[in-house]
Model the fold of this input.
Amino acid sequence: MTTAHEHPLQKILESRIAIIDGAMGTTIRTYGMTEADIRGERFKDSTKDLLNNGDLFSLTQPKMIGDIHRRFLEAGADIIETNTFGATSITQSEFFVDDPRERGGRKDPAFYQKIIDDPFLNSLAWEINEKSARECREWADHFGNATGRQRFVAGAIGPLTVSLSNSPDADDAGFRVVTFDQVKTAYIQQVRALIAGGTDLLLVETIFDSLNAKAALVAIREVFEQDGKELPVMISAAVGRGGETLISAQTTEAFWNAVQHMKPLSVGLNCSLGPDLMYPFLEEISQKADVAISCYPNAGLPNPLSETGFDLGPEDMARYLGDFARGGLINIAGGCCGNTPEHIAAIAKALDGQPPRRLGAIPPEGASYEPQIERRA
Done:
């Protein structure tokens, strides 16, 4: 069986900080795509709006998605993510299946079982994942061959639009709209399609519900065991002001304890409230985890008046990520929402030559890294 320990990215992380790409959704918006653009001929008769279904662009506007991959690679990314953040049958159902709540019903496990069994949604989810992975693979290999520096494809696995941890019904705390097995089944399909498309890594990211993530990790483990092929796994959570996952409210330490059994290549934080509020939580997980640490925050908080929809520009993100590097906290760095190729280029330049956090070394309890720039409240 191919194992994560044999992967060449591991050696890179020991020698320098690797760069992961930025925000696909943010960058897509800079191309000015319309509802007609995402529909194309294939989805022209869809009854629901599709423009927010960014994963679908991999099928209808592959040249644009390829151009985004190219720009992130030119910016210095070692790792580019597939355009598959919401490419499960469960999330795709939001765009293709009528919401029963609009007719006085509700979403429940019976509703989602129909989603899991739906041939159209299953076929669509598989196609998005496999094609997006192949698009990424093409660009990563092209740049790797042209520059003599290997680039890697991470299969992006997002958190879903449903929660296993919380009930949406204030009068029924025990109610869940979906079951663990249904979520696991959707993730199994996504994982297999990403592997079929040629990904190097699997990235379970923007985790706001730890139980959803657990289902994804169980799905990954089952695929590895059943199919006889294992890839490195990266795990990244989104946290709030108190440093807890946003729905399941696990602290960073509890989160690490819940996922370390996967023996991931890396664990870290992404998205969240921006880099200015992330430092203490990144420091905490760096102290607890004995694997590589990743960090790719939002470009600050959302701001509809900003050109990218977020407050921080490339130079701001470069300063903050440089601060994390000087603190000895990171092995993988990049940007989430609001981060364009220009942001990633600035981050890559700022981190060039900065030593990575030493792998396998957990800072002693009570150790403190003081940032060299002011963090905004």
Observations:
- The CA atoms of residues 27 and 340 lie 6 Å apart.
